[in-house]
Amino acid sequence: MPRPIPASREDVKRLSVYLQGLHQRPAANSQAELKGIIARIGLLQLDSISVVARSHYLVMLARAGLYDPANLDALLDEGYLFETWAHAMCQLPFAHYPWYHAYIQQKRLKESAWHIDKLDMDLDAVSAQVMKTIREGGAMSSKDFESERRGRGGWWNWKPTKVALEYLFDYGELMVSHRVKFQRYYDLTERVLARHNFTLDKSFDDFRRWTIERGLRHIGVGTANHVADYYRQGKRDAATILSDMLKSGDALSVAVAGWKDAAYIHRDNAGALERIQAGEHEPALTAFLSPFDNLFWDRDRDEMLWDFFYRIEVYTPKAKRIHGYYVMPILHGCELVGRIDPKVDRKKKRLIFNNLHLERGVKIDGALNRGMIRAIEEFMAFHGCDSFELLKCNRVPLARRLRKHFA
Description:
The protein is α+β, with helices and mostly antiparallel strands. It has 16 helices and 14 strands.
C-alpha cells in the first residue's frame, strides 16, 4: 500500500476552501453557475431563521457573489433540486434521488421513530385524508389545511395534519414540489417524479457507500468521523467503507501534521492537493458564512483545522450568549478570522452589525480592511440596504475604518 501523502493543516484548510468554492467567484453569474456550485458542495442545508436572508441563500451568496435568489428558488420549482433529510433538511440535485429512494425504503423497513402511540391521534386516518385531499386537489401547503379547518369549522385540525404531512414526507409518500415565500407545498411523490426518468435500483448498501464517497469528495481531507458527518452517516460504517476504498484505490491515506487519527482523501482530489501544495488556488475572498455553511458543519474538524470554537447561539438563552444571536463566521482567504452578529432593518433598509468580533491574534492590515468593506457592501446590496451601522466591535482601528467608510 502506498505511503500516506504528507500534508500540513494549512494544506488541508486550503483544499477545503477550494473544494467548497470559497476561494474565488465564478466568472459568470447565471443559473448554470448556481447549479455548478450545488454540484460542487453536494447539498444546501435549509433553515427558517430570517434575521438576514435564510441560510441557503447565504451559502450561495458566499460562493456566487450577488445573484438573484429567484434563480435559486426556480431550481426546486423546475425539478432540478429535491428536498430530503440529509445532513439536516437539505436541497440536493434530483439526480441524487435514486440513492435517497433506497434510504427511504430502508426507513420503512425499520421500526418507526415517530412513536405513533404517543401522538394522541389516529395518524393513519389523518394521513389517508391528507393523501386523498392532495390527490384530488394538487400540491398543498400546511396552511391550506389550516384554512380548511377555519373555513368549515369541521374535521380538520392543523396540528394533526402537519404531523401527517411530515410523516408522509419522511416516508416518501409525499415530496416538496415547490415553495412560495419559503412555505412548502407537498404533492404526491409519483407526480413529482413524473418529470424524471429514473431507474430506482439502488440498494441501502449503495446509499451508504455513495454518501461516504461523496462526503470525502466534498470535504477534501478528513477522518472517518469527519467524512461521516457530511451526510450524517454512521461513524463505524464510514470507517469500514473508507477502509474498503483505501484497498480499492478510490481513497488515499493522508498524514496530516498534528492529527492522530487516520485521514483520507478521494483519489480524484489528490491532484488538487498537489497543486495547492505547489502554491496554486490561492484563496482571495472575504465572505460571511451562514451558521449552517457546509465548510464547517463538523465542529470538531473546525477546531482541529482552524482552532475556531463555534457554536450556534440562536438556541442559547440571551444572557448566556457570547457573540450574539445569528452569529456568522468571517472567512478571509482560508482563515476563519472572526464573526459578526448581523441584522437587517428592512423598513429602514439598514444593515446592522450588533457585534463584530475578530479572533485573538488576527492582524488588521490593508487586505483585511478592503476585504471586510467589500463583503459588507456585497451583503448590503444583496439585502437591499443603503446604510450600515456597527454597534459593537472588539478592535477599535477596524471599527473606526468601517464607520468612516460607511458614514
